[in-house]
Amino acid sequence: MAIEKNYYTIDPQGKLKCVKCGAPLITGKAKFMYLDNGFPVELPVCPVCGFVYVPEELALGKVASVERALEDK
Amino acid sequence: MSQIQERGSTHVYKVNKISKEEMESMVARCVYEQPPFCSAACPLKLDVRAFMKAAADGDFKKALQIYEKIAPFPLILAAGCEAPCEERCRLGEIGDAVSVRAVEDAVARFGEQSRSGGVFRMKKRKSVAILGTDLFTLFLAGELEKKAYPITVFCEQGDCESFLRACVPFLSDAAFALELKRLGGKDIQFEFDRRIDAALYEETKARFDVLCTSAAAARELFPDAVILPELMFCEEQRLVCGDCEGVLDTAFGAKKAALTVDRLAQSLDPRNMRGQEGACESNLYTDLSGAKELRHIPPAGDGYTKEEAIREAGRCIQCHCEECLKSCAYLKHYKKHPGLLSREIYNNTQIIMGDHPLNKAMNACALCGQCSVVCPNGFDMAQVCAAARRNMVSTDKMPLAPHEFALMDMLFSNSEAFLCRPQPGFEKCRYVFFPGCQAAAIAPATVRAAYLDLCERLEGGVALLLGCCGAIADWAGRTEMEEQTHELLARELARLGDPVVIAGCPSCAKELKGFSPLEVRGIWDVLLELGLPEGAHALERPAALHDSCGARGDAKTQQAIRTLAARLGCTLEDTPYSGDRSPCCGYGGLTAYANREVAAELTEKCLERSDAPYISYCMACRDRFARQGRESRHILELCYGTDAGSPPDISEKRRNRLSLKNELLQEVWMEVPMVKKLEYSLAFTDEARKMMDDRMILVEDVIAVLEDFRASGEAIEDEDALLVARRRVGNATFWVKFSRAKDGFLVHRAWSHRMRVEKREG
């Protein structure tokens, strides 16, 4: 079986909760998309409604640097 | 407010060609890479600057290495060189030229010879014979030895010493002894006591690949030989030789002859691939104001001592042109002269696939045109960078991110905050006041006072037009958006009866003049005619006047501001780089959005000119100086006795524009504007406020997220029991961390990203 590509994983460690559903967030499959490029990742996701959480550190760190790199393509 | 379409993909494989001629003509204006005049005058192309620097540093070994590149026998050349470099030395125009030859002589005497080449040097396969005894054959042997040819010199003398003496009868005994030693150290074979005759010619022709002779020997062997002086070559006889006069000419002749030997050894036509030979012209610009020692250091004895040579070499001003780098923080930041940077930026626009490494540099130029004034040849980085931005936009390769906030701000100014009304009681107006978007954003009370004053004191009606002139789109390279803005403004101006435009900002005035046939005047000119309004006052302390880059080349405006300041009673200090040479505050060209680091350096460059408070006549300058903590006032604040106070953050700048519009609608046009009020309270921690300004997140963005949360209830609760909600607004997703407060919310943090994120199945 082919190993599925995954660029980044964040485990919520049971510390985050979906307000709407009341469910704790789990590590779930998500995808970042920008300028016709896609990146599969694993982020905290609500198992009920599918809310995907992008923490501040990720947004300002890895996400921002990939954005800059793609913008200059 | 409409959105700006993000480019769809990074997979755009087309470029819009730029004219190579256009690029080359601009790049050629930069004289940074031109040789200094001394080196240009030297047919041997000595790097005089590097040589003098090494000598001045006392590094005679290095200096000698540099000199030996052009002189295999340094003392001989130094003794007899006619030194055309000294004639062209720029110091000679204001004092004594640097005594290059005397320093060369000292370096040749005191410099430690480096062991270049050595025994492991690979010899060339083709062998060379040199027949005859004169300075040319000696120099040629030296040149060919440097090129690692196996050389044999055939001479009538019986030993090396008598050969050398016959070559350089003019050399002093001391120098002779040193050069004899040098000759002995060179890998040159000699066959002594050989008569130069036809028999020797035949013999060497059979034994060697290339034959070289002295001019005398050539004439003796072939009385009818025709020597081509540019090649040092008798074509018919395949003989390398030449007539030379003087030591320098001989050294140059030997250099040309060595190149001819190279070509012949490779069985190539000696005419080809010779490059530029000999002395050349230079257009280098040299600022002579830094010259300190104008007088030549006289040697105490026959030649310079080491110390004297160091002092004389230290007089060299190292001619180079850095006028733009001295004045422009942007060029200084990238540490590249404009010729090189422009070529790289042009190339950046022509990359079909992959990274565009110069995007940031291309978008960091303030497009202020200062370089075009300080450069002796009028090099204009603004023209290069603006053309590159337009080019990249035209191929959909321009990232939107660096300019999106500013462009959205422009759309805001020309939609929600836009206002165009004739003065009450007038259908058509003789004038329209156009304060500019930044004036309304930063100093709304000043704009209000100015408009009311103009209405009161001008005849024929004064309309008001609050909006953006389109300069922001121009700076971003978005021609289409700029044209749309111009169409909007032209339409509104026509509706007002094509009035005279009274601009409050020199950049707006410039932009408006660029597309509108209407008369455009600065409010400063109008105030000079009308006289100062009531409440006008001076700054108590002497102030520095910062000229706006929008007024570059506009002496009338620059003078009008000075006259206005004088009438106010201001004492203005003289600052370097004022008038046309004024640097940009960092807002121009959208540098403040695209590259904050460079923008901060530009601001710093403006402020380093004086410690006094700054008076400016562009609201963006006023704002950026105030943000750096400098007392900063716009001339209109002084004219109207208003004080815009501490600089507003990005959200306040928008709110100021809306409030100004609404206040004036009520006050002047008696209209009650629709003001949307929040149904809940919204508060921010100080940290959140600062963070939002830094991250370019507007209060409106936060409200959009919270509205969404109120409607959907979607949010995350973190371990500190704070809530985090998000919403996609335009091309970015905004995240807000907040807590519920009494009747509303308290915002703790906010962040954003441009990438879309969604759950994926699997």
Short synopsis of the structure:
By secondary structure, chain A is α+β, with helices and mostly antiparallel strands.
What does the secondary structure layout of this molecule look like, with pairings?
The complex is a heterodimer of chains A (73) and B (762).
Chain A: E1 17-18, E2 26-34, E3 37-45, H1 56-71
Antiparallel strand pairs in A: 2-3
Chain B: H1 20-27, H2 37-41, H3 48-56, H4 60-68, H5 74-80, H6 84-88, H7 100-110, E1 128-131, H8 135-146, E2 151-154, H9 160-167, H10 173-184, E3 189-191, H11 198-207, E4 210-213, H12 215-221, E5 227-228, E6 233-234, E7 239-240, H13 247-265, H14 306-314, H15 323-327, H16 329-334, H17 338-349, H18 359-364, H19 370-374, H20 381-394, H21 401-413, E8 419-421, E9 431-434, H22 437-442, H23 444-457, E10 462-466, H24 471-476, H25 479-495, E11 500-503, H26 506-515, E12 520-522, H27 523-530, E13 543-546, H28 555-568, E14 572-573, H29 591-594, H30 596-607, E15 614-616, H31 619-627, E16 632-634, H32 635-640, H33 650-667, E17 681-684, H34 686-694, H35 699-712, E18 716-717, E19 723-729, E20 732-741, E21 744-753, E22 756-759
Helix pairs in contact in B: 1-17, 3-4, 3-14, 4-7, 5-7, 7-14, 8-13, 9-10, 17-20, 23-33, 27-28
How would you sum up this structure, described in words?
The complex is a heterodimer of chains A (73) and B (762). Chain A has one domain: Ubiquitin-like (UB roll) (Roll), CATH 3.10.20. Helix content of chain A is 22%, strand content 27%. Chain A has one helix and three strands, in the order βββα. The radius of gyration of chain A is 14 Å and the shape is elongated. Chain A starts with 16 loop residues before the first strand and ends with a helix. Chain B folds into three domains: 279 residues, 3-Layer(bba) Sandwich (FAD/NAD(P)-binding domain); 224 residues, no CATH class; 73 residues, YaeB-like fold (2-Layer Sandwich), CATH 3.30.2310. In chain B, the strands form four sheets. In chain B, strands 3-2-1-4-7-6-5 form a seven-stranded mixed beta sheet, sandwiched between helices. Chain B has a five-stranded mixed beta sheet with strand order 8-10-9-11-12, with helices on both faces. In chain B, strands 17-21-20-19-18 form a five-stranded mixed beta sheet. The longest helix of chain B has 19 residues. The model of chain B has no long low-confidence stretch (mean pLDDT 95). Chains A and B meet through strand 1, strand 2, strand 3 and helix 1 of A and strand 18, strand 19, strand 20, strand 21 and strand 22 of B.
